[in-house]
Amino acid sequence: MTFFNNKMQRNFVWLPIVGMLVFVVFYVIAIMQYSGGSYVYPNQAGFNFKTNYLCDLLNVQTINGLQNTARTYARLALATLCFSLILLWIYLPKLFTVKSKAQKIMRTAGILAMTITLFLASDVHDIVLRIAGVFGTIALIIAIVELYIDRYTLLFVLGIICLILFLTNYYIYETELLLDTLPLIQKITFIFCIFWFMLLNRALYKKLHRRL
């Protein structure tokens, strides 16, 4: 029975990576479908990586006032990403050799962050972003500390970079200092964090594989 459960976990744990790849595909489709407009240039054509936020793709209407045909793909992308990362946070404590109460807090905070993020397309976008950001920060900090304790050096360093990028986004968003750089920084953060999560997922798979 233990062998069967471990084998199931090892196979199941690949799903977050699949989900993250599906997220990228859906968001690329959404970007191609977006008719145009940003807060800086309301009449621009199409999606601009330097001026559009990823959240622009979730709105009912584009900023130039047209119906947003990208919305369905963007919402599917968001849902896929959130459920994928929820699954990753559920399994992530299995990566660490020594178990601790902090890992349970990490798991809970990570699950709450991604569950709340599901409501990012609602009318309370800013509130959702702030609450999810608090839980996400807690989960990230604990994960980084646990990676350091377990001597996952590369994942620890990359996690620090992810945290810095994440907090930089939050700082600019709240202070509006260098706000014109935020759309581009947001995308760099997304790419880097997804890459880090994939590496975490890979390390988790290898750890479960060694247990068989």
Automatic annotation (TrEMBL):
Q: Keywords on this record? A: Membrane, Transmembrane, Transmembrane helix
Does the keyword section mention Membrane?
yes
Transmembrane segment boundaries: 12-34, 73-92, 104-121, 127-145, 152-172, 184-205
Q: What is this protein called?
A: DUF998 domain-containing protein
Q: Which organism is it from?
A: Thalassobellus suaedae
